[in-house]
Amino acid sequence: MKLRLCFTDKGGNTFRHTPIADLCFHRMAMEYVQQDRLDELEALLAGGEEVYIRAGLSRLYKSKNGKQGFWMQANGVYIFPGYYPE
Question: Residue 40, Cα to own-chain centre: how many angstroms?
């Protein structure tokens, strides 16, 4: 299962459907998903004063219609102050 996030940066730009490539965060989040504890996961994320996302870009992608570009992904998700209890 792929996890994606939606976020708004400090400049007011909104990014939707951003894939999460942080394997530690993915494993932890999937435990919440599999146990049907999404409210707890959202509370954990909302409980931090700051949430930082380390963004990365994919290799150059060329579509069938000739367009090319890069995919953005979240390589790290960090909550300060705080930690993942698991």
Answer: 16
Distance CA 66, CA 20 (A): 26
Q: Is the pTM of this model over 0.70?
A: no
Q: What amino acid is encoded at 32 in this protein?
A: Y
- Burial degree of 77 (CB within 10 A; 0-12, 13-18, 19+): buried
Contacts of 31 (CB under 8 A, 6+ apart): 86
pLDDT of residue 83: 57
> Which residues are paired to 4 by β-bridges?
19
Q: Which pair of tokens denotes residue 71?
A: 């995919």
